[in-house]
Every structure is written in structure tokens, then in C-alpha cells.
Design goal:
With 96 residues, this protein is mostly helical. The protein has four helices and no strands. The chain has one domain. It starts with 6 loop residues before the first helix and ends in a 19-residue tail after the last helix.
Length: 96
């Protein structure tokens, strides 16, 4: 598939923006300490809140199209959290 949300584009996005994944992991682990399942989209909303409120002149912007990529990456990188985020298998997907 071609398009913005490809696995290759995600890898590049992560390399250019490592702070986003580290923040996602921090909040996901915090949620996992209290819940057995949670919403990756809710974590993104919290990331937006945190950066908009706590950082001066923050222009934190991240497309929702990356959410499923971050959720999958997190569960691969931290197998102890497998199943923490619900992921769907699509007929046409950018995910392997």
C-alpha cells in the first residue's frame, strides 16, 4: 500500500521524533499499572494535553493516523503488555 501511514514512514517518523514514543511508553505504562486494557487514542490525548499545558510555546502536533502504529510498536517492544491495546486486523492494512 502507498500513502502517508506506511510502516516505512512510521519508522522515519519515529527516528525524527523519538520524544513522542518515549512519552507514549511512559503514559502507557502508567495506564497499565491501573488497567488491563486501555485506549491508545486516550494516551495521545493526554500527550497533547501535557505538552500544550506544561510546555511554553508548544506546537505539539501528531496525526491520529500514527496511533495504531505506536500501539503495535509498544506491544512488540514490551511483550509483557501484549493485548493491552485492542488492535484490529484490516483487509487493507499498512501493518504487517
Amino acid at each position: 500500500m502507498n500513502g502517508k501511514w506506511t510502516e516505512e514512514n512510521f519508522k522515519h517518523h519515529c527516528e525524527v521524533n523519538p520524544n513522542i514514543y518515549s512519552m507514549f511508553c511512559r503514559f502507557a505504562k502508567e495506564a497499565a499499572s491501573r488497567r488491563s486494557k486501555y485506549s491508545a487514542k486516550s494516551i495521545f490525548h493526554r500527550m497533547r494535553w501535557e505538552t500544550m499545558i506544561t510546555e511554553v510555546d508548544s506546537e505539539f502536533k501528531i496525526d491520529d493516523g500514527w496511533i495504531s502504529h505506536y500501539a503495535r510498536k509498544f506491544m512488540i517492544d514490551f511483550p509483557e503488555y501484549e493485548g493491552f491495546f485492542e488492535v484490529r486486523k484490516r483487509v487493507k492494512s499498512y501493518h504487517n
